[in-house]
Design goal:
Distance between the termini of chain B: 21 Å
Structural class of chain A: mainly beta
Number of strands of chain A: 8
Helix content of chain A: under 10%
Structural class of chain B: mainly beta
Number of helices of chain B: 7
Oligomer: heterodimer
Largest interface: A-B, 16 and 22 residues
Shape of chain A: elongated
Helix content of chain B: 10-25%
Shape of chain B: globular
Strand content of chain A: over 45%
Number of helices of chain A: 1
Low-confidence stretches of chain A: none
Radius of gyration of chain A: 18 Å
Largest sheet of chain B: 14 strands, mixed
Radius of gyration of chain B: 30 Å
Largest sheet of chain A: 8 strands, antiparallel
């Protein structure tokens, strides 16, 4: 189950989570390597396919302005994954599907702040 | 000398993976809480009233402020501490910080706690470390914060505490018969620094006969004195004021870092200017016995009912003659043993009339080093004349004139005379040089160090925040050095920077130095007293 700001949202069609890693690998003239690691920040990418306009607008309400949100996924491979994050902007929304259905895909990547 | 570090820190510096960290602390309110204790990890609140102690043993004056931790908003920071290419005199460290301002915390007037204090001259400290052990890199004062609202960044440039000395003057008019290190200590104590806030090495020459300090900024006093000693004055990473004499680098035999192709990412060689002919001049002064220092050679008219100020310029064969005191002139008839300055009055300019003491009053007399101003008023109805003024005072006289030249004929034959100085001798004048030997040493040292060009190397090593300005290091260059022949250098410049993108970068400017004791591989300790032979 995924919640945004405490509200359960529709399960995404595709989901991935990972860490943004901040580090620099230094290589000496003698080909020795040293890694300076600064830290890591969580991220989660969710894709919903063929959302109706109402479903799409429910999700856009959380993400469209790029505001910070509280993300929790109780079923991550990390166990419960929880962080406050901001979405990459602009949001990735697909073209409308054929046939005048107004169905669209939405992909949101949240990055820990 | 490098920062004191734990075994864990040293292991992290050598490890293939380490975790870098930094702290940027700013005392926005410049709040001082005399009752607060020193900050203790896991005990004190970062925003509490406890002072953060410098990473060295000494408590610096910057510890007196209360700081806000700005780590969460720091995009990047850098600290640069570079002496001149020829490291004599005084130099500053500088820092640059870029703060994320998405929250508008640094917008003047926005934040309820610090909004009114987004101003210059805020105390700032920067720490950098490995595996959670942070070492102080900089203490100083911020410049004017620059905020761009669309960029959502605030940029701050900061100078270390040496900047403070450029703006303050001493209450002491002059020093006499004291060595420069004694003078430095006195000046610093006068400013409120305690002995654990500075480290002053011994002067390399004798007492300075006379050093006038009135009206001078401390920075200028420090600069003049340090240059006469061929020493340097700076504030180190821990905020300790340092004076290093001319022997510091050559006697600094403990190797702090061994640099080689294994831990250096890049380097760039450069040569200092060739200096092979130097002439040093000095005319030191000392306080002489009280004596007659001025006798007027013409009369001055004081028109009826008017006031005239006469300027007396004290001079001798060396030019302007400073006095530390003088007797206020009295009428000739009133001269006695305690007041030997006098003036004569007369109704005629040639002194052929009658004395008119009762018609002339001396309103004021003031002495400003080499000049005195004496104001007379003529209370009569006709012109009167001051026909003579004689001033008795305590002059500060030139005690000797030194002109010492040194040149390296072999260097001149190879490069020509001072090729970077238009082929002419470098002439250096500093009247704080007190003796012939020091004047000679000044010329000789400059030529000895730079007659063949001093090799300097800008090295980018694997970063280690424990390294400090002045460290002795070895650098073994795989391409040119023999297997057992790494060269010894001293660090005369450091730049260290960090942040999310830069992570941690370090640049060292190394100046090659002469060795004093042989280092033996597999025998001598890297931290021991041995150094590597040239």
């Amino acid at each position: 189950m995924i919640t945004i700001n405490g509200n359960t949202i529709q399960d995404p069609s595709n989901y991935a989570d990972n860490h943004d890693q901040y580090f620099t690998d230094n290589v000496s003239l003698g080909l020795k390597r040293q890694r300076n690691r600064r830290g890591k920040l969580k991220n989660a990418t969710m894709t919903w396919r063929l959302l109706t306009p109402a479903q799409l607008n429910d999700l856009l309400a959380y993400f469209e302005d790029g505001d910070e949100v509280a993300f929790i996924n109780t079923e991550s491979s990390y166990g419960t994954l929880s962080f406050n994050g901001i979405p990459d902007l602009p949001l990735q929304m697909s073209e409308y599907e054929q046939g005048g259905t107004f169905l669209r895909d939405l992909t949101v990547t949240l990055r820990e702040v | 000398m490098a920062h004191d570090t734990s075994a864990e820190f040293d292991a992290a510096a050598e490890a293939s993976v380490n975790d870098v960290s930094s702290d940027v602390l700013i005392g926005w309110q410049k709040a001082f809480d005399a009752g607060a204790a020193f900050f203790e990890l896991d005990v004190s609140d970062l925003d509490g009233g406890d002072y953060l102690r410098g990473s060295g043993d000494d408590v610096t004056f910057f510890d007196a402020y209360q700081y806000q931790e700005e780590n969460d908003n720091v995009d990047s920071w850098s600290v640069t501490r570079v002496a001149g290419q020829i490291p004599y005199g005084l130099f500053y460290a500088q820092a640059d910080i870029v703060l994320d301002n998405i929250s508008k915390r640094y917008l003047p007037g926005f934040d309820p706690d610090i909004g009114d204090f987004i101003k210059s001259r805020r105390p700032i400290k920067i720490f950098s470390g490995l595996d959670g052990e942070n070492l102080q890199q900089f203490v100083g004062f911020t410049g004017d914060p620059k905020t761009k609202i669309l960029e959502r960044k605030t940029r701050i440039h900061a100078f270390d505490g040496m900047d403070y000395f450029e703006s303050v003057e001493t209450d002491t008019d002059y020093y006499s018969e004291m060595t420069f290190d004694e003078i430095l200590v006195d000046l610093l104590e006068e400013q409120g620094f305690s002995s654990d806030q500075f480290n002053i090495e011994a002067s390399t020459q004798g007492d300075i006969g006379y050093f006038r300090t009135a009206g001078k900024k401390l920075g200028d006093i420090f600069r003049e004195g340090a240059e006469a000693e061929q020493g340097i004055i700076f504030i180190d990473e821990d905020g300790i004021i340092q004076f290093w004499n001319r022997f510091h680098f050559s006697q600094n035999a403990t190797i702090e870092s061994a640099l080689s192709y294994d831990n250096v990412k890049d380097y760039e060689y450069s040569e200092t200017p060739i200096i092979n002919h130097v002439i040093t001049y000095s005319q030191p002064r000392a306080i002489a016995a009280a004596q007659s220092v001025y006798t007027s050679d013409n009369s001055v008219e004081i028109p009826a009912g008017e006031t005239v100020t006469i300027t007396l310029n004290f001079e001798d064969v060396y030019g302007q003659l400073p006095l530390i005191d003088s007797h206020t002139p009295v009428h000739f008839d009133d001269v006695d043993g305690s007041n030997k300055s006098f003036y004569q009055t007369n109704t005629a300019s040639d002194g052929g009339g009658t004395q008119s003491e009762e018609n002339i009053t001396l309103d004021s007399y003031s002495l400003i080093e080499t000049t005195a101003f004496v104001k007379f008023t003529n209370t009569s109805g006709s012109s009167m004349y001051i026909t003579e003024i004689d001033i008795w005072g305590t002059p500060v006289k030139v005690t000797a004139s030194y002109e010492r030249e040194y040149k390296d004929e072999a260097s001149i034959a190879e490069y020509g005379t001072n090729p970077d100085n238009d082929g002419v001798a470098i002439e250096y004048t500093n009247n704080l040089i007190q003796d012939d030997d020091t004047a000679y040493a000044y010329s000789l040292n400059m030529v000895a160090e730079y007659s063949d060009g001093s090799q300097q190397v800008k090295v980018t090593p694997f970063a280690n925040p424990a390294r400090k300005f002045g460290d002795a290091v070895t650098f073994y260059n795989d391409e040119v050095d023999g297997e057992d022949d790494p060269k010894k250098f001293v660090v005369i410049g450091t730049k260290i920077s960090g942040g999310l993108d830069a992570v941690l970068e370090q640049e060292l400017i190394l100046d090659q130095r002469i060795f004093v004791k042989n280092f033996e591989l597999d025998v001598s300790s890297l931290d021991g007293s041995h150094v590597i032979a040239a």
